[in-house]
Amino acid sequence: MGGGIGLVSGAGLRLVGSTVAGNQATGGPQNQDGGGIDGDSGALLIKRSRVVHNVAEGSGAGIYYFSIERSLITNSTIADNRLTSTGGGAGMYISPGFDQPPLRITRSTISGNRTPTQGGGLLVGSAKLLISNSTIAGNRAGAEGGGIYSSGDVTANAITVARNVSDSDSSGGELGGGLFYSIPAPGFDLQNSLIGLNRLGDGTRNDCAGDDFDSLGHNLVSALGPAGSCQGFDRPTDRVRGNPRIGRLRDNGGPTKTIALKQGSPAIGNAGHSAPDRDQRGRKRDRHPDIGAFER
After folding, report:
1. How many angstroms separate the CA atoms of 108 and 123, rounded?
2. Closest C-alpha among 15, 123, 136 to residue 61
């Protein structure tokens, strides 16, 4: 179990200033999940680390984790991991149960991960996720949820979800280039977040799909998509703009890559005071903070 790191039940992991790269979990039914890290039950801490270029046949090419203790991923990168078969969550797969403490992800980037099924960047099963000041970009899913696929309980604040792709094989009908949410999960709450320039494999703009999202306000969405898609962004402070005026994922300072706001971006100055005091890079936000993970 675990191509790079495999943890026995109850064992925790502290990964600080480290890299887990180039591992494979492709051998037999007991060794198909967690190409980089496969853990069960114990607390997870990943800080200033990289989980990159890992491969798995099952789920969680980067990280496959069921934690019954409080866990945190911060100032870290989960990138360019690849699933080869039927599992989901190329970057990370989590599903410890709704009665367990939430996984917290902050100031981190999940990018360039690929799966033939659901959840290119992240798949949230029966789990709670608190994610803030983080970037989900350039991930690809053959099915729904290019950036995030959730049937769990997600609360997002000041995240940027950009240029992800669902239905990457263009087979048709698999929406949610950026986000896909499926009930009867408890909810998918977003505030101060930028969801932009996500698409389907055929090039159609599609930022989010599935059941209604729960907007807490001050979100920017670039495409509401076809009928029945991307519902719930209806607060007076939410914005729909076809061109969010954002840069490419790159090193803009700080420990992880981010997506900068270009001059004239409708995200500038339009977040609420509930946005974190500092952005993903650790830069202090001003009195009129910007939407997303990057403060211009």
Report:
1. 16
2. 123
d(CA 65, CA 257): 24
Give the whole-angstrom CA distance, residue 62 versus residue 81. 5
Please give the C-alpha separations between residue 216 and each of 14, 158, 237, in angstroms, as whole numbers: 33, 11, 9
Q: Which two tokens stand for residue 79?
A: 């990138």
Which pLDDT score, from 0 to 100, does residue 40 have?
A: 77
DSSP class of 58: S
Residues 6+ apart with CB under 8 A from 184: none
Query: Which pLDDT does position 107 carry in this prediction?
Result: 98
Q: Which two tokens stand for residue 55?
A: 């491969």
Tokens of 219: 């979100």
Question: 179: number of CA atoms within 13 Å, CB side?
Answer: 36
CA distances from 131 to 67, 163, 218, 294 (A): 16, 18, 16, 14
CB atoms within 10 A of CB 66: 20
Cβ atoms 114, 142 nearer than 8 A? no
Low-confidence ranges of the chain (pLDDT < 70): 1, 27-31, 184-185, 224-229
Contact 208, 179 (CB under 8 A): yes
Q: What is the reported pTM?
A: 0.95
Phi, psi of 257 (to 5 degrees): -70, 150
CA 137, 192, 294: angle at the middle one, nearest 5? Answer: 50
- Strand 122-124 vs strand 148-150: parallel, antiparallel, or unpaired? parallel
Distances in Å between the alpha carbon of 106 and those of 74, 195, 233, 267? 5, 17, 23, 20
